[in-house]
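Minimal example, chain plus iron/sulfur cluster.
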Amino acid sequence: MSTREWNDWRWQNRHRFTSLSALARVLELTDDERQALQAHRGSLPVGITPYYASLLDPRNAMQPLRRTVVPTLAEFKRMPGEADDPLGEDGHSPVPGLVHRYPDRVLFLVSNFCTTYCRYCTRSRMVGSSDADRAVTRSQWEQSIAYIAAHPEVRDVLISGGDPLSLSDERLEWLLTRLRHIPHVEFLRIGTKVPVVMPQRITPALTRMLKRFHPLWMSIHFLHPDEITPEVVEACERLADAGIPLGSQTVLLKDVNDNVPVMKQLVHNLLKIRVKPYYLYQCDPITGSGHFRTPVQTGLDIIRGLRGHTTGYAVPAYVIDAPGGGGKIPLLPDYVAGRDGDDLLLVNFEGRQFRYPDPLGKPEYSDAAPTKPKTSDAAGAAPASQGRTGGRMPCA
Ligand SMILES: *Cc1c(COP(=O)(O)O)cnc(C)c1O
Ligand code: SF4
């Protein structure tokens, strides 16, 4: 293998690790991993790009990145409440491959193929089901495009999969062109993990093509600070320089990223490469995901550990995609401690209590003189009143 080959995404794609024998050449597999690789059948195959495999620790099966892509026997255990399609996506599909759950936007699953398969994938029921199914058919695309064109309320199309960036530039361009021709589609976005698992895919030719379809946003699936390598930095810089606003999507995973220090490092590194942490997902109860799921409290504690303690831009929204198809439901730690008469009792990031005047019902105006801050004579001596009068401009 030459450097030129290594840097060529097609080479990366062709040389993906997909079998026990291939992985055994680069990792010291545990018995558990071996058995899991042997027993594996059906959808959610094993797939790891040589690039991503190079980030794996050959000797430590508990390394966060390795746990997320190398199967273990725990994957075959079914826990209460788990399902193959926990989000009820199939039930919200007016045509195969299109999920219309929210009023104004759709999720367009354009491919079943991913270059690297995540062991906790929400769409494990469909991704990589077999080589013949790899590409969603052109006629399926046509049906989805026709649906979007016939529904003027759809102003936002989220292109996902599988991974849309596993498609060739030509197919992707064809698809984006068709979607851009629909007048009511004002916002396009691509959900992808490719910049993380195969950053070589983000070529100048790709970004030149993508920037013709603005406004185009991108949500990138990041898990862990170790993923942010020089190659990934370069890929994200290229995308950002093409004017594509970047957001991250992170699944909260046990023993991978379920603590504040790791998450803080991740979100800080993301801001440095111009990726706004967008969503932190509670892991969906997909069949065989028990070993990856954390209590919801863990996610709340992470948000509490970020908000106020670091840059507001760095704090993602923590959401549970409601089983049964309720959509994403945001969760926040309790910053509201209750009420005391007309005051709302609030708790700040340090755990200190504050009051905000928030009368219920009709406000009653008193006859007292308007609460003009007595600033002229007491300017330097009234720090308490600065809190009320200063910093009111929302744009400040
Ligand atoms: C996540 C998701 C979207 C996009 O949701 P946003 O909150 O707008 O990012 C749209 N449709 C489906 C089915 C989804 O799961
Ligand atoms: S990249 Fe996304 S669709 Fe593909 S296996 Fe991972 S989570 Fe699933």
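The longest helix spans residues 138-150. Residues 336-380 form one domain.
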